[in-house]
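Q: I'm writing a short explainer about NitT/TauT family transport system ATP-binding protein for a general audience and would like to include a description of its predicted shape. Could you first generate the structure from this sequence?
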Amino acid sequence: MRNRHDITAGFVPLLDSALLVVAKEKGFAEAQEVALTLVRERSWATIRDRLAVGHFEVAHILAPMPIACNFGLMAPAPRMIVPMALGLGGNAVTVSGPLWREMADAGATDPLDARSSGAALKKVISRRAGDRLRFGIVHPYSGHNYELRYWLSGSGIDPDREIEIMTLPPQDMGDALRSGLIDGYCAGEPWNTFGVLKRGAHLATVKAAIWKSSPEKVLGVNSRWGDSHPDALVALLRALYNASLWCADPANHEELALLLSGPAYINSPAEWLRPSVTGVLKVGRNATQTVSDFFVPHAKAATFPWKSHALWFYTQMVRWGHVDHTAAHQNVAGNTYRPDIYRNALKALGVAMPAASSKVEGALRMETPVGSSGTMTLGPDGFFDGNLFDPDCVDAYIAAQKQA
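A: Of course. Here's the predicted structure. Afterward I'll give you a sentence or two in plain language.
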């Protein structure tokens, strides 16, 4: 008989906590002899702190945060590894109704096209003559911050001089928008849908349009625990992988929305979660749009911890002054994500996995079958501005960003 593993995981009430919730509630953890306890927290800082002091062994966490912890950019901070991603996509850029109307007057027509929405926002900012817009993000070391900045700068907007970016919990974004504290925000679901349904907001674009097939949350693991409990970590990864299969099945989408909406988890109406679970998004008051890749829990190697993802986040940390570019820092960032642990955990299941640990982000313009340990399709991936990120050319990429 296998040993039973007691694991406590922290999470913030968001759509992309789905794999942890489903692993517990649908019996996938139990099937791997994992007694999984989930603890809801309001902020990412608390998640980090409780990982550091050992209250949590693992957590649903912002994809760049483990890298920032390993750089010593936050305290207290545990040494962390990322042996699995918790899906692709899942967030959006939401703006107030008045700002969207200004953007529409400036030529924004497709509410989810990153290029046209960014160009319209640039025109709005130019007309304001120094009156800076405020945008909310959930944490400085978040995909939200780096992708929002990438979108703004790629649209000709200086995120430090022409926009004020402030940090708020995702649950507070909609109310901050309605009060006028902020003009827009980048957050995970269901808080964009909440903004549209309850606060008169409008979606400007989505993560899946800014950087296709990109990670949002990952499984952050206190490396001391992971090193000393390898069998427990393997069991948890298998449970989460099986949960990703369940989440990806359209037949389960209604149950998933209901499950996540419960009081122990997101504690919000299921109608706020159905759009992001199904990909039929509420874009504005009277508009919907289908985005099939808005949140991807399983397809396209959605749970694989690509080193190229970690290294792209590193380049953005360098770009925005969070860390100096050195060979040592680059090595720390790349080694935070651990595809070797992922492969070791799942190989006995016969899971299709990428043969490589990194890829050129933006090289796949369409869905592409790739060589792997089984049948797998990747892409499309890449950035709204058409640029590529080659993880073997980090120096050149960082230098090019400095010139942008």
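A: For your explainer, you could say: The longest helix spans residues 230-248.
Q: Perfect, that's easy to follow.
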